[in-house]
Amino acid sequence: QYKFRDLTIEELKNVSKTYPNFTFSMNTYTFKDGSQKDLLNFSGTVPVKYGNCYNIPIHLWILDSHPFAPPICFLKPTANMGISVGKHVDAHGRIYLPYLQNWSHPKSTVIGLIKEMIAKFEEEPPLYSLSSSDAARQAELLSYIAKITEGESDKKSRGKTEGENEECFNKITVVGAGDLGIACVLAVAAKGVASKVVLLDLSEGAAKGGTMDLEIFALPNVEISRDFSASADSKVVVLTANFLGNAQTYLDVIQSNVDLFRGIIPAISHYSQNAVLLVASHPVEVMTYVSWKLSAFPKSRVIGVGANLDTERFQYILTHLLKAEVLAKDACIIGEQGEDKVPSWTSCNVVANQTEAIAARNSREKVANRAMEVLKGKGQRSWSVGLSVADLTDSILKDKRKVHSISTLAKGCCSINSEVFLSLPCVLGTNGVMEVVKLEEDPLVQEKLQSSAGSIHDLQQQLRL
Known about the structure:
This is Ubiquitin-conjugating enzyme E2 variant 3. By secondary structure, the chain is α/β, with parallel strands linked by helices. The chain is built from 13 helices and 17 strands.
């Protein structure tokens, strides 16, 4: 059934010579769409040096169009091994490498693939040792991910264990221990809204410096962990993880973030099935969409930080710098982050006639333009985004039902027909978005939102989910 049987056999002979420990067999592989096919596969270990030399078990499936299509690669951890989710490995153990993405016969070979695998694993070890209790949790997680991969997720399967504390416990998990993640932890802790804050550190190397300082100067109710199970039963999960590699194009960077989230979101959604996912990773509109798709959560419980910070600044500028407090009341920044954001209002004052209405609109537009010029000079530092995240979590955990401009599914708003996330004024409560507040009708605003939706949708169509 292999189209290029001789080429495939020749290459596998070369693999066997270089890695004699590999074993070959024919087995049935189940694809994501549920279809199945008998494929050649081989299993074995590759030597990885990380201090000492470790043998990393892998499992490779050879497609019937090989060598013109790359193998499908997985880690094959033993019962006492845990998977370190990262930019090259997802929570199910599937391996993603630039070599696979750029596969091209005859330049690309299985031997070359394994060499890159070894190099990447030496930079970021894909496995770690588990205690017996950790091994049980790992097996449970892998079983759950296998179910959702096959479309058999049962959200009710993980009920309360006997004796589990039923009282309200406001736990927040922050995923990613870079500057933004640490800023979010500090801001949330300072706000005092969470009973416990978990910082989930998925990184190695430089980023560890910040978490080391958090460990040294221990904060009350703050825990640092590399184990997804530490996030269990979080009310809010803040996603700050971003790809830090040397991707060549903007699309490559986003795809790398998507690959990273493919390993994070299933594990997070397993351990905190009723959480609100709050996305702060870049680009926020696309990564919020990705989180929604990968989690299978309702749209109300997957939101992005969006233009919350810009809106708070915009209202402050109107009130305190331009002395236009009346205008600030219903003002917000909407659309997509960056230069394409646009000011808008959720309501307008009733005026006596059309002439006065036009005059009021023109006056408001002039003030808004001045405010936007001031806003342009305000960059978004990690600590300022952290404060915005703390503000949003405060509204969620305390069920404040306050209006925030956040990234939410915009389909159906302003004649947008595609599944894209844009910043819109939303009422936030315990279960996320309770209501999208109606905007004042403005053709120019609608045109800008539709333009943003079109460009974001085009970008999403180029991504591999």
